[in-house]
């Protein structure tokens, strides 16, 4: 099993959990903001925050890295 790095997968897994939790918190805040905007009679522009875009991009990058990492580990085990 030379070449297998379980520490990398552990840290990546923790990172994915943290990013996922932050995305859930951000989505909840966005939902509350939109609900308040609907309750108000005035119209307001709709838009998302740059933080949500950065976190989504980070999640995609981490997922792609994890796919490549797992594929490499499976190849090493074969």
The fraction of residues assigned to DSSP E strands is under 5%
Shape: elongated
Mean pLDDT: 79
Tally of strands:
0
Distance between the termini: 10 Å
The number of helical runs is 2
In N-to-C order, the SSE pattern is HH
The helicity comes to: over 70%
From the alpha-carbon coordinates, what is the Rg to the nearest angstrom? 19 Å
Structural class by sheet pairing and helices: mainly alpha
- As residue ranges, the low-confidence spans are none
Walk me through the structure.
By secondary structure, this protein is an all-alpha fold. The chain is 79% helix and 0% strand. The mean pLDDT is 79.
List the keywords.
single chain, 78 residues, mainly alpha, 2 helices, 79% helix, 0% strand
SSE topology sketch:
Elements: H1 6-39, H2 50-77
Helix pairs in contact: 1-2
């Amino acid at each position: 099993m030379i070449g297998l790095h379980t520490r990398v997968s552990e840290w990546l897994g923790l990172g994915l959990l943290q990013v996922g939790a932050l995305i859930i918190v951000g989505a909840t805040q966005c939902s509350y903001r939109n609900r308040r905007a609907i309750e108000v009679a005035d119209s307001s522009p709709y838009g998302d925050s740059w933080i949500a875009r950065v976190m989504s991009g980070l999640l995609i990058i981490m997922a792609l890295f994890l796919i490549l990492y797992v594929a490499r580990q499976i190849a090493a085990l074969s």
